[in-house]
Every structure is written in structure tokens, then in C-alpha cells.
Design goal:
Blueprint: H1 3-11, E1 14-18, H2 40-53, E2 57-60, H3 70-77, E3 85-91, H4 97-110, E4 115-120, H5 131-149, E5 154-157, E6 162-165, E7 180-183, H6 187-196, E8 199-202, H7 207-222, E9 229-238, H8 242-252, H9 258-266, H10 274-285, E10 291-293, E11 296-297, E12 310-313, H11 315-327, E13 332-336, H12 340-350
Parallel strand pairs: 1-2, 1-13, 2-3, 3-4, 4-7, 7-8, 8-9, 9-12, 9-13
Antiparallel strand pairs: 5-6, 10-11, 11-12
Helix pairs in contact: 2-12, 4-5, 5-6, 6-7
Length: 355
């Protein structure tokens, strides 16, 4: 990519933080503290810290069993954030589609049009589906949800959605569906994203591997006559010096019991997914110090399913790593760090102004 093209890419980058709605906040990884469990005041303070620091967006995750409800939390938070968008995670199949569309349109109005939507395709509490029907359900929900949020009438008869409705009165501020962010690494997930997503999310990986994912998904989307944006969900640990950042990473896992870490990983629904398998492979291939490549540390994956690596370094190194991902096609970052509020302040001070 030329310097001018990279400069344009940098200007359009979206930087989001993460609200720990699913009991995923620690000073020492794997050592829970009551004050850091998901609650309205704790997670609200993380979100307002991100808004104050100038982040563009914040992910409100949807837990399978842990944590608090993302939609209710988003509705409560919407009047409090001054400029930031909300990336609201919703699990396909968990809510009646017309009601979900009405709630999302209402929250978008409360935000003045700043809603974005993270589509989650997974089993529902108390109900399990094989991969093929589960993604079929996700595709049907995404298709009909988009039509409802676009203000269209519905005449849809599928395996999971059977619905006829007049156009909804409640509309988003723009009158159209907010962007769908969606991730997954199985063939079914990638095909679903290629046909129905707006932003494809990938987990932390080497720059070369992320570049390969962008190329693959660009080709798949082109098969549907579509284009995608690309986002990276990763952790960060930034300090004034590299030595301090690496020491902070070591301190984070200094009290981690491997059996506790395994329990934390196994309680997630995505433990057997293709994406998690790639995170495990990345960790297994890392050097003895846990670094898969310069400034990409996999130690967080010892006690976390899903995004299992962190960008670690001084402000210049973290910025350079993010720009390396930008250069291969990433233009949205969803970042987090432990503890979430404190690391949000550090990233906001040291890196965000330069993005």
C-alpha cells in the first residue's frame, strides 16, 4: 500500500473499546474480584471512560450465561454517552425478531443514529443445534432483521423464520439498518459473513495470517457481489517503555492457576470453534515467552476463550502494530485490556491520539 493510501486508511480507522458485561475483568487473570464482576455501575464506568477518552465505539458483548443483558444495558447507557457509538451484541434466535428490531431501532434513536450491531451465532441457553442449522438460523435472522430495520414489509418463510408483517413504524435515525459486525472461522460462518455482514471481525493473529483472512473474505464476498470492511478484536497492554509493558503482561498472569484457566476457557460456548482452535494453535506456536511475533503476546489465551492474544509494547510499538494491521486491510479495532477501565485510560493517553 502506498504512503498516500495508508494515510487515507489511517484517517478512516474506527477504534472501539470493550465493556466487560460477561464477568471478564481482572487485575490478575483468573483471580475474580467482586468489584470487577459485571454490574451496571462497573460496566457503565468502563463505557463512560471510553467515551471520555475519545473512542469511536464500544462493544457490549452478549454472554451465554454470565453477565448482564446487552440490550437492556445498551438502552440504559445510550443517554449517557456523548459521542461514542455502541456496538450492541445480539444472539440470533434468542429474541422474537419484530421485538428485537423494535428495541434496536429505539436504542438507535436514543443514540441519535450511533448504533452498530454485533451479530452472534451460537447455541441458546438450554438449546443446542448442529453447526449447519445454527448458521441457517443466523442467516434467516440477519436477512429479516436487516429488512425490518430498513423499514420494509416482511414476507419470509424459512426453516426458522416464518413471518409476514407490514413495514414497521419505528425506524432508525437514518431509516436504514445499522452495520452488522460478524465473525467466525468455520466455512459456514465465513459464507454467512460474506453474504450478510458489513464488517467481518477476526481475532488476534500474525499480520500475515490476518492479511490472508482479509484476502479470503474479500474473494468470498465478491462471489455475492458484495464488499466488506474488516475489524480486529484484540487485547492491548501499553506502557511508557517496552520493558514496563512486558512486565505488566507477566504480572497479569502471575497468579494464574492453569486448571482455573482451563475452567474459564471451557465455560465458553465457542471452545470447540474453528476460531478458538486457531487461537490455540497461535499460542502453541509461540516462543517460550508467549510471543507469536514481535509485540503479539498469547499469554491471555491461557485463561480466555476467544480473543487470546494482546498487542504489548510501548506507545510507538503498539501504534506500529495497529498500523501494520491497517496496511493489510483492517480499518476497525475492538480493543480491551486488564483491568478494562485502567487500560482504557492508558491506551487513550498513549496511543489513541495518534490514531
Amino acid at each position: 500500500m502506498s504512503d498516500s493510501a495508508l494515510s487515507e486508511h489511517q484517517r478512516s480507522v474506527e477504534v472501539a473499546w470493550f465493556a466487560a458485561l460477561c464477568d471478564d475483568d481482572y487485575e490478575f487473570l483468573g483471580v475474580p474480584e467482586p468489584k470487577r464482576l459485571s454490574s451496571w455501575p462497573h460496566c457503565r464506568d468502563i463505557a463512560l471512560t471510553a467515551d471520555r477518552n475519545g473512542f469511536d465505539n464500544i462493544l457490549l458483548p452478549s454472554g451465554y450465561a454470565l453477565g448482564i443483558d446487552s440490550v437492556a444495558f445498551g438502552a440504559a447507557l445510550a443517554p449517557l454517552v456523548e459521542r461514542m457509538k455502541l456496538l450492541l451484541a445480539v444472539r440470533m434466535g434468542e429474541m422474537w425478531l419484530p421485538q428485537l428490531a423494535r428495541q434496536l431501532a429505539t436504542i438507535d434513536q436514543m443514540l441519535g443514529g450511533r448504533l452498530t450491531i454485533n451479530i452472534i451465532s451460537s447455541d441458546l441457553p438450554g438449546q443446542a443445534l448442529e453447526s449447519e442449522p445454527r448458521y441457517q438460523r443466523t442467516r434467516e435472522y440477519m436477512q429479516v432483521l436487516r429488512s425490518l430495520l430498513d423499514g420494509e414489509s416482511i414476507d419470509f418463510h424459512g426453516a426458522f423464520v416464518d413471518l409476514e408483517l407490514d413495514p414497521p413504524r419505528i425506524r432508525t435515525v437514518s431509516g436504514s439498518c445499522p452495520p452488522f459486525y460478524f465473525g467466525g472461522f468455520s466455512p459456514a460462518a465465513k459464507d454467512t459473513a460474506a453474504e450478510h455482514a458489513d464488517v467481518f471481525l477476526t481475532w488476534p493473529d500474525t499480520v500475515r495470517s490476518v492479511a490472508g483472512t482479509v484476502t479470503e473474505m474479500t474473494d468470498l464476498a465478491a462471489g455475492y457481489g458484495r464488499t466488506l470492511r474488516y475489524g480486529l478484536r484484540a487485547h492491548v497492554i501499553v506502557r511508557e517503555t517496552e520493558a514496563e509493558a512486558r512486565a505488566a503482561a507477566d504480572r497479569l498472569v502471575s497468579k494464574l492457576d492453569d486448571e482455573v484457566g482451563e475452567t474459564i476457557r471451557q465455560r465458553s460456548l465457542d471452545t470447540a470453534s474453528a476460531g478458538v482452535a486457531r487461537q490455540v494453535a497461535l499460542r502453541d506456536a509461540a516462543a517460550d515467552d508467549g510471543y507469536a511475533e514481535p509485540n503479539l503476546w498469547t499469554g491471555i489465551g491461557r485463561a480466555r476463550s476467544g480473543a487470546g492474544a494482546a498487542i504489548v509494547g510501548d506507545p510507538d510499538q503498539v501504534l506500529a502494530k495497529l498500523q501494520a494491521y491497517q496496511a493489510v486491510g483492517i480499518d476497525a479495532f475492538i480493543l480491551s485490556g486488564y483491568p478494562h477501565q485502567e487500560e482504557c485510560d492508558l491506551f487513550g493517553r498513549y496511543v489513541l491520539p495518534n490514531l
